Amino acid sequence: MKTFDRYIIRQYIHVFFVMMISTFGLFMVIDGFSNVDDFQQGTDSTSETLMIMAAYYTVQSSMFFDMTGGIIAVVAVMVVFALLHKNSEIQPILAAGTPVYRLLLPTVVGVMLINTLIILNQELVIPQLSEKLEQSRGKSDNKKEKKSEPVYDYKTEIYIAGTSLNKKEHCMDHAEFVFPDPTISTVLFSLKANKAFFYKQTNSRSAGWLLKKPNTSYKDIPLTAQGKKIVHPVNNGTEIFINSDVGFFELQNRSNRYRYSSTMDLIKHINNESFAVVFKNKQIMYLHSRLTKPLMTVISIFIAIPLILRKESRGLVGNMAICTLALGVIMGFSQFFSLLGSANIIPHDLAAWIPVIGSGTLAAWLSGMVQT
Question: What angle do CA 139, 144, 148 make, to 5 degrees?
Answer without folding.
Answer: 140
